[in-house]
């Protein structure tokens, strides 16, 4: 494995006096967390301007990415490496992602994640690998999946149980959260990353189950597995059954990471509105359980994407509710803030919030609130928005503060 072999080889060379330790900038400490999300569509800048099979061009591209993150006051980057049951890294489990190769399953001559980890660490940034666990495709066309994609193989299987491992809902394909073999596939994929790459963390966002409606939530998707389950026979609701499936996955990932490298953190970024997370129709995440134990996550990073003047989910009030939830907990709290909304007043729910979004200082105000209330850090969405004036003002504040 690259991570282990490289470390052992370097150690031997240093012991023999053949190689002096490489001087790199200090990596970000876990107590100083200023991160930015680098999404799958941020790779488009590279694909649109370069040869997707050129390692030196990708290195140059990502070197500039890291440099921009540093300029904006960030000390950590969260790179999406599995957007849709694929891999933006060298994987034996998932096919190469179309978002890095142009077509799913197409080989490339270099390992993007290896380059990203090396470049981030060279410039002193921590780096986390961001995966979407259940999403397989943004459409329902299995023919667009590569032939070596396990989701396609399961769909084409003569085994009816295997065909249930992938489900279609609302124009997209998903892995079935109720199937143990799906859960193991996702855990195996995480283990592959942690074993092979010197990442500082594994990250998941708010996409678990798709959103259902009040009329179909108990009739569709994995309702078949629920109806056949002992949980239903014992009186468990489908809401709690689905939460249990997600809990099994999250706990399994945390256990797998800790067994390989306990220094690698595991975090999840759920939707920011706590009330929405209690819905019977979507998400199915048990945030209270996750934050009241050390067996699920190392940090929680709610996406609080509303201004201080939002009609129902004011930034300060929602942040306070999350802070109260993790109070006395060992789980860290990082707040996701919305660079993508800056300069877009139409996203506001009130006249005052529209004014906030139009201003150039809202992100800075959010960060100041986080710092003032001793919250552990922030994550900015998204890298593509770092050139906005609001991000420049945020950067000035962060550099002055840290």
Walk me through the structure.
- By secondary structure, the chain is α/β, with parallel strands linked by helices.
- It has two domains: 2-129 and 177-401, TIM Barrel (Alpha-Beta Barrel); 135-176, no CATH class.
- Helix content is 40%, strand content 13%.
- Strands 1-2-3-7-8-9-10-11 form an eight-stranded parallel beta barrel, surrounded by five helices. It has a three-stranded antiparallel sheet with strand order 4-6-5.
- Helix 3 (55-71) packs parallel to helix 5 (112-122), helix 8 (180-196) packs parallel to helix 11 and helix 15 (362-372) packs parallel to helix 16.
- The longest helix has 23 residues, at 238-260.
- The two termini are 36 Å apart.
Helix-residue proportion = 25-40%
How many helices does DSSP assign? 16
N to C succession of SSEs: HEHHEHHEEHHEEHEHHHEHEHEHHEH
Strand order of the largest sheet: 1-2-3-7-8-9-10-11
Task: State the end-to-end CA separation.
Answer: 36 Å
Largest β sheet strand count, sense and barrel closure = 8 strands, parallel, barrel
Identify the quaternary structure here: single chain
Secondary-structure-based class equals alpha/beta
Looking at this structure, what is the CATH superfamily of the largest domain? Glycosidases
The gyration radius over C-alpha positions equals: 21 Å
Briefly, what is this?
The chain has 402 residues and is an alpha/beta fold.
Topology (elements, then pairings):
Blueprint: H1 2-15, E1 33-38, H2 44-49, H3 55-71, E2 76-82, H4 98-101, H5 112-122, E3 126-131, E4 135-137, H6 150-155, H7 160-163, E5 166-169, E6 172-175, H8 180-196, E7 201-204, H9 223-227, H10 230-233, H11 238-260, E8 265-268, H12 287-291, E9 299-300, H13 315-326, E10 332-338, H14 351-358, H15 362-372, E11 377-381, H16 389-401
Parallel strand pairs: 1-2, 1-11, 2-3, 3-7, 7-8, 8-9, 9-10, 10-11
Antiparallel strand pairs: 4-6, 5-6
Helix pairs in contact: 3-5, 8-11, 15-16
